[in-house]
Write a structure and sequence with these properties.
The protein has about 400 residues and is α/β, with parallel strands linked by helices. The chain contains twelve helices and 13 strands.
Length: about 400
């Protein structure tokens, strides 16, 4: 079988399903487990740090691990960086068959830090039983030194190893999400998959196949022309009635506004019911509420999506198009509109109808922490010796 530690809502699992293979996921978060169940994925709800390793010995072909990254991520308090020597010590001890987690945990500033050492506990147990054949691990870029330590251990155990930083946009993900990757194999030379996309289209040449241009948010979401105006819908004013309970307010989604092609003025009349001919808006996605937030036009890939705190809210923002001057009396720039879970999931390359469970905050938390399935499929296909068909990742519905 294939064992998926910290399986989350199913990024790796959906990729495996597309490739015609199934895994068993270990996950603690109840809403992620509900999402996995709704998606038909095999799951054991458990604390990965407490679950025994013996049931998997001699039965596991591949091991996948994406430990929680909150303690290491740029988006969090980054106490994991303070704890880094303790995590390295835990990995070294577990690789030697010594379990010192209890003692080391007492010294950690963030109790989640040692979760990044958990894959080594499983790897040591599986190695004693003759497996696994391959390993794939993913984390935020700051964890690359830890992956280097894992690589040194796995190399001694007979694995071919590759570690490095990959940009998800280079593999058709509409998001410039950079991640530290570890790939290991006993059966083949471990190496990163060949990129399929680039910032600028690269034609086929004598030196190799061409690469398509990075996938934009507009392409992924199926919005058509980027200059189509998508104004704000105010809660309760449009067809269908009442407000949608967003944490930052109750405005309807950008996709809803586009699909309906209509909107209602704000009570103060600041947003007219129809735009003047010749006026247009260029829509961008702002990654959070902070002053230095990444802002990307809709005809570009998104920046890295992460959620879990109010300051991390992603919103669509609009400005008058530079090539379509706004005449006097034209509508004011629409207010920012919070991205929906469906849109965020699509930008992570989950299907548009993926069955996210929980309230808005719980869904966004799952989405932000998930590995993009399309990136995962590129990483896994060589290990499984199956072809990857890009058409299997059609996103917008």
């Amino acid at each position: 079988m294939i064992l998926d530690l910290f399986a989350g809502p199913g990024g790796w699992s959906h990729a495996l399903t597309v490739l015609g293979v199934r895994d068993v996921g270990l996950e603690w978060d109840p809403w992620a487990c509900k999402t996995r169940a709704a998606a038909g994925q095999a799951t054991i709800r458990t604390d990965v740090a407490m679950y025994p390793t013996w049931p998997w010995v001699g039965r596991t072909r591949g091991l996948i691990a994406s430990p929680p990254c909150q303690a290491w991520s740029m988006a969090g308090k980054r106490l994991g960086l303070v704890d880094q020597p303790l995590v390295h010590q835990a990995v070294a001890d577990l690789a030697a068959g010594r379990d010192t987690r209890k003692q080391l945990l007492g010294a950690c500033r963030d109790e989640r830090s040692l979760l990044a050492a958990e894959p080594m506990r499983y790897l040591h147990a599986l190695h004693t039983g003759g497996g696994p054949e391959w390993v794939a691990m993913e984390e935020v870029p700051d964890v690359l030194p830890l992956w280097t330590q894992y690589a040194a251990v796995l190399r001694r155990w007979g694995f071919s190893i590759w570690t490095g930083i990959l940009n998800a946009a280079d593999y058709g993900v509409p998001q410039t999400r950079r991640r530290a990757i570890l790939l290991a194999s006993r059966l083949r030379t471990a190496q990163p998959p060949e990129p399929t996309h680039a910032r600028v289209t690269e034609p086929e040449s004598l030196f190799g196949p061409g690469r398509a241009r990075w996938v934009s948010m507009t392409q992924a979401l199926g919005w058509g022309a980027t200059d189509r105006p998508v104004p704000t819908i105010c809660a309760g004013g449009g067809p269908g009635g009442g407000p949608e309970p967003f944490p930052s307010g109750s405005r309807k989604s950008l996709s809803d506004a586009r699909d309906r092609g209509t909107w209602t003025p704000r009570p103060d009349g600041a947003v007219p019911q129809a735009r003047r001919e010749g006026a247009g808006w260029a829509w961008s996605l702002r990654s959070n509420n902070q002053a230095n937030a990444t802002v990307r036009r809709a005809d570009e890939p998104a920046g890295t999506l992460f959620f879990g705190h109010r300051a991390n809210e992603c919103t669509w923002v609009a400005a008058p198009r530079g090539d379509a001057p706004v005449p006097p009396g034209a509508p004011v720039v629409p207010e920012p509109i919070r991205i929906t879970a469906r849109e965020a999931g699509i930008l992570q390359t989950f299907p548009a109808d993926y069955p996210w469970q929980g309230n808005k905050g719980q869904q966004f938390s799952q989405i932000g922490n998930a590995v993009p399935p399309r990136l995962a499929a590129h990483l896994l296909a060589p290990h499984l010796r199956v072809p990857l068909d890009p058409d299997d990742f059609t996103l917008a519905a």
